[in-house]
């Protein structure tokens, strides 16, 4: 059997999908900031393309036997940067509402800190951040989030579509679709709220797990 090289891993099919997600995300955010009123539909399409790609890279990796630590890292970084980038855009677009700007800032801080601590707390123990054994002893919401795909999907879709719809409603005020988008926005907000609750529990559970590990080391 031919030995697998680092270049082989970098060119795994799911990782190539990951690179395409990065391109779509960067292009989308650039359009949102530079030509927001002219190409907002294209910006949303590109962002959604990146989001949909996240649904397939894991499936492809398992189907082709091309799972990798690098792929998990690429996926995590892309997810976090996409969300943070969109929240940054929303903070600019809603600059007249100081409370919304503060909310977007706090969501950024919670998102990056909770996922970073989750990744660190599990990888330091040699476990995957989504695995059942990696989340053993964590808050039940965190365990549900990574164990039950429908719960995971509902919360992720709810959060991302809350941000996407909050972006889209700004450009449709004079169009018939505006009330439909506003109704859809209110419909997905509960999923976004639950996602933030999971993030908060994920942050505290991960920090406690690291503290437990420190205590174990000290007591040896």
UniProtKB/TrEMBL annotation:
Residues passing through the membrane, by range: 12-34, 40-61, 148-169, 175-194
Cellular location(s): Membrane
GO cellular component, one term: membrane
Record field: catalytic activity: a CDP-1,2-diacyl-sn-glycerol + myo-inositol = a 1,2-diacyl-sn-glycero-3-phospho-(1D-myo-inositol) + CMP + H(+)
Pfam assignment, any one: CDP-OH_P_transf
Listed EC numbers: 2.7.8.11
Cofactor (UniProt): Mg(2+); Mn(2+)
Any GO BP annotation: phosphatidylinositol biosynthetic process
Bilayer topology: Multi-pass membrane protein
Any one GO molecular function term: CDP-diacylglycerol-inositol 3-phosphatidyltransferase activity
Top-level lineage group: Eukaryota
Gene3D superfamilies (alphabetical): 1.20.120.1760
Predominant subcellular localization, coarse grouping: membrane
Keywords, comma-separated and alphabetical: Lipid biosynthesis, Lipid metabolism, Magnesium, Membrane, Metal-binding, Phospholipid biosynthesis, Phospholipid metabolism, Transferase, Transmembrane, Transmembrane helix
Record family assignment: Belongs to the CDP-alcohol phosphatidyltransferase class-I family.
Annotated protein name in UniProt: CDP-diacylglycerol--inositol 3-phosphatidyltransferase
UniProt organism field: Fragilariopsis cylindrus CCMP1102
């Amino acid at each position: 059997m031919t030995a697998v090289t680092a270049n082989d891993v970098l060119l795994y099919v799911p990782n190539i999908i990951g690179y395409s997600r990065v391109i779509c995300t960067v292009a989308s955010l650039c359009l949102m900031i530079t030509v927001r009123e002219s190409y907002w539909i294209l910006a949303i399409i590109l962002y959604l393309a990146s989001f949909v790609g996240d649904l397939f890279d894991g499936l492809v990796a398992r189907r082709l036997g091309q799972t990798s630590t690098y792929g998990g890292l690429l996926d995590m970084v892309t997810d976090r940067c996409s969300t943070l980038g969109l929240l940054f855009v929303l903070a600019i677009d809603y600059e007249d509402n100081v409370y919304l700007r503060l909310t977007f800032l706090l969501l950024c801080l919670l998102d990056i800190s909770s996922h970073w601590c989750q990744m660190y707390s599990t990888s330091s123990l040699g476990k995957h951040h989504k695995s059942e054994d990696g989340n053993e002893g964590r808050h039940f919401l965190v365990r549900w989030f990574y164990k039950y795909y429908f719960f995971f999907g509902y919360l992720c879709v709810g959060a991302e579509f809350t941000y996407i719809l909050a972006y889209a409603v700004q450009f449709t005020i004079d169009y018939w679709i505006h009330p439909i988008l506003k109704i859809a926005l209110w419909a997905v907000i509960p999923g976004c709220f639950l996602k933030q609750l999971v993030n908060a529990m994920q942050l505290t559970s991960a920090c406690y797990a690291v503290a437990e590990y420190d205590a174990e080391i000290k007591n040896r």
